[in-house]
Amino acid sequence: MNQPVATFIPENAPFDAGQRLWLNGYMAGLLAGKHFPPAILKGAANGGAQATVPLVILFGSQTGTAEKIAKQLAKESRTRGCNGRALEAGAHAGIDWSQETNLLIVTSTYGDGDMPDNAQAFWDWLQTDAAKSLTHLNFSVLALGDTNYEQFCAAGKKIDARLEALGAKRIHPLEVCDLDYEAKVKAWSAGALAAFAPTGGPAASPEAIKPAAVEGYSKTNPFPAKLITNRKLNGEGSQKETRHFEISLEGSGLNYEAGDALGVWPHNCPELVAEILAALGCDGEEAVPTAKGELPLRQALTSFYDVSRPAAELQKFFSERNPAFAALLTPERKDDLKKFLWGRGVVDFLVENPGVKLSPKEFTALLKPLAPRLYSISSSPKAHAGQVHLTINVVRYDSLGRPRKGAASTFLADRVNDGIPVPVFIQTAHGFRPPADGGKPVIMVGPGTGVAPFRGFLHERSATGATGKNWLFFGEQRAATDFYYRDELEKMLADGRLTKLSTAFSRDQAEKIYVQTRMLENAAELWAWLEAGAHFYVCGDASRMARDVDDALHKIIESAGGKSAEDAKAYVAKLKSDKRYQRDVY
Ligand SMILES: Cc1cc2nc3c(=O)[nH]c(=O)nc-3n(C[C@H](O)[C@H](O)[C@H](O)COP(=O)(O)OP(=O)(O)OC[C@H]3O[C@@H](n4cnc5c(N)ncnc54)[C@H](O)[C@@H]3O)c2cc1C
Ligand SMILES: NC(=O)c1ccc[n+]([C@@H]2O[C@H](COP(=O)([O-])OP(=O)(O)OC[C@H]3O[C@@H](n4cnc5c(N)ncnc54)[C@H](OP(=O)(O)O)[C@@H]3O)[C@@H](O)[C@H]2O)c1
Ligand SMILES: Cc1cc2nc3c(=O)[nH]c(=O)nc-3n(C[C@H](O)[C@H](O)[C@H](O)COP(=O)(O)O)c2cc1C
Fold first, then answer.
1. Fewer CB in 10 Å around end: N or C, the chain?
2. Counting Cβ atoms within 10 Å, is residue 12 exposed (0-12), middle (13-18) or buried (19+)?
3. Are strands 242-248 and 223-232 parallel, antiparallel or unpaired?
């Protein structure tokens, strides 16, 4: 959109209309304190209407959302007077920052307020003296996160603050987004691009500005897929419930690659919805707003709202009506609040506060929208055309005297039948792929459901005739009941498609044995594989396992590789920047 700008260039100056418009915008920008690189001045010479503002867009993304937004932003920038280049944050080292003036960052947050893997090197670099070369930059940051995490959008917030501390100029305010990020992303993108291109840039062609046509199935337009297999992987007596699902993609036009994830939009448990309706004193027919317009409350609570976790808005509402709960919301009682909320759902707040009355619309205004769940795909399209396989730990537990169910895992395990399709979409992985060179060895660490993508990798590598060696570390509680895909893996081991299988069954003996125990026992061999160019992959629990495996990897590089702690750190950083250390952790 072109915006009116002040007039600095006299009418009789020797410029055509386009050049005048561009120069006026440039002058307005300078007066507003913006910095422009020499490259932008070239725009004046070839006619203002052609001028574009060079713009680097760095993304930090673990599961592809920020990456997709950054790439879309780069595309959009070209219709708004900028020439955006979307690059992963780790590519910072290849950029000549003296030639760049404009920087946008789009990043998610992982772990406990940590950078996504592909932004870690950028973040480390921002702490060094070399990053002082960024002081001349104009920047803005878009942070993606999830308010269910304590360190909400911490990675984006940290980068924003660090760039400011380095002396760079925040040209457009930081935006922080929860899982329903679409509207905020749209507004931030428009604002940030307008801030960089003072005149709004060359007018976009009508094709360029019209919203993208719905191109097949996606997160916002999921495919109603058919569930064709639902099989328990654990034997009798196991303490776990992990299931193998097969979902047909026939007729969807959806494609995926080994390493991608499947997004599943769940329907909430009808019994839980009924309990909430009873607590509200509603019959479920009351009309309430949803993303798809007004719908009956029962349908809205089943398919559009998160009715499990008490959102911040709901907590605030009850804190204003319940002094005992309000006392927990003070910063010094953070740990007490955490304990109080563990296993406590939306329904508990209603039942425990019977005096608090809420209309259906007041109630839904306190809920977060239902979010899709991601699952690492455990198949390869080259081995199972038209199908996606999943390996899912079904979440069931008792809390405050009620049985509780994970929304998506029990939707698939219990509630999908012939009449109910599974709304799905493909979430393309960021770099989590078997090596393009099939001759490279791979080391895969995947305890529990973390085995999922590696089943896909092994199927893929055998379908493509990849000659590189494959080493899988798998762990679960007990060999007798929890050795997922045992027959398949042992067959692959016997025929050489799997070179080595190291298992760690944690509860088959008095002391815990974990995958990292096996890694450390095999330190010399693991080091030799790394030195032979192996790619190292980790999938599964993020909070403990992935950190411990990372520690073990460092120890192995120190002990078997004879390196100091500092050199081991550098070795791991190099593995990451060479894309030979990839993680899919949750
Ligand atoms: C990229 C990616 C890939 C993934 N791949 C897989 C995969 O391959 N397989 C897989 O199984 N999962 C995978 N997950 C996790 C998955 O997306 C879901 O988070 C998981 O299935 C739980 O979803 P749910 O809807 O069933 O449970 P939810 O309704 O989201 O409930 C889970 C929540 O319940 C609470 N909770 C759980 N147990 C207890 C307890 N004992 N006491 C109190 N509260 C508790 C916790 O707050 C927990 O966060 C992946 C996640 C990501 C991001
Ligand atoms: N945050 C948590 O506290 C927590 C705990 C469990 C699961 N989860 C979540 O549960 C989901 C799936 O779990 P899952 O069924 O795939 O399996 P899992 O719970 O990760 O367990 C798989 C195996 O890993 C072992 N394990 C536990 N701690 C480990 C560690 N620090 N390092 C290495 N191995 C470890 C387990 O042993 P033992 O169980 O015998 O210790 C088990 O043998 C994930 O979403 C995960 O994030 C979270
Ligand atoms: C294991 C895990 C840890 C996460 N940790 C945080 C966190 O600490 N703070 C936060 O705001 N969001 C957190 N998130 C949410 C992600 O940042 C959010 O889903 C984001 O949209 C993902 O974007 P991406 O696909 O580009 O990685 C976490 C998500 C996962 C799966």
1. N
2. exposed
3. antiparallel
Nearest atom in ligand 1 to 242's CA: 11
Q: At what angle do helices 65-77 and 182-196 cross, to 10 degrees?
A: 40
SS3 assignment for 38-106: HHHHHHHHCCHHHCCEEEEEEEECCCCHHHHHHHHHHHHHCCCCEEEEEEEHHHHHHCCHHHCCEEEEE
pLDDT attached to residue 26: 57
Taking the C-alpha atoms of residue 67 and residue 116, their distance in angstroms, rounded to an integer, is: 11
Give the pairing of strands 242-248 and 169-170.
Answer: unpaired
Pocket flag, ligand 1, residue 586 (CB < 6 Å):
yes
| Pocket flag, ligand 1, residue 449 (CB < 6 Å) | yes
CB within 8 Å of 252: residues ≥ 6 apart = 216, 217, 223, 225
Q: Mean pLDDT, to the nearest integer, of 161-185?
A: 96
| pLDDT tens digits along 137-146 | 999 999 999 9
The H-assigned helical ranges of 503-543 are 515-521, 523-531
Give the pTM: 0.88
107 lines ligand 3 (CB under 6 A): no
C-beta of 245 in contact with ligand 1 (< 6 A)? no
- Expressed in angstroms and rounded, the spacing between residue 374 Cα and the centre of ligand 1 is 9
Alpha-carbon distance of 107 to 52, in angstroms, equals 25
Q: Is 107 in the pocket of ligand 1 (CB under 6 A)?
A: no
Residue 261 CA to residue 421 CA, distance in Å, equals: 18
| Tokens 């910072």 found at | 92
State whether the beta carbon of 268 lies less than 6 angstroms from ligand 1: no
For the CA atoms of the chain, what is the radius of gyration? 26
For residue 143, give the nearest of 95, 102, 110, 190 by alpha carbon.
Answer: 110
Task: Give the pLDDT mean for 399-413.
Answer: 96
Q: 530: left (phi > 0), else alpha (psi -120 to 50), else beta?
A: alpha
Ligand 1 centroid–CA 347 distance in Å is 19
Distance 395 CA to ligand 1 centre (A): 7
179 lines ligand 1 (CB under 6 A): no
- For ligand 2, atom 35: residue with the closest CA: 545
Lowest pLDDT segment from 143-152, 237-246, 558-567: 143-152
* pLDDT at 82 exceeding the cut of 50: yes
DSSP secondary structure letters along 275-295: HHHHHHT--S-SEEEETTEEE
Q: Across the beta sheet with 261-264, what order do the strands follow?
A: 373-376, 261-264, 422-427, 223-232, 242-248, 387-393
Q: Which atom of ligand 2 is nearest to the CA of 393?
A: 15
Domains of the chain in start order, with CATH, are 17-209 (3.40.50.360), 223-266+372-427 (2.40.30.10), 270-364 (1.20.990.10), 442-585 (3.40.50.80)
CA of 586 to the centre of ligand 1 (A): 8
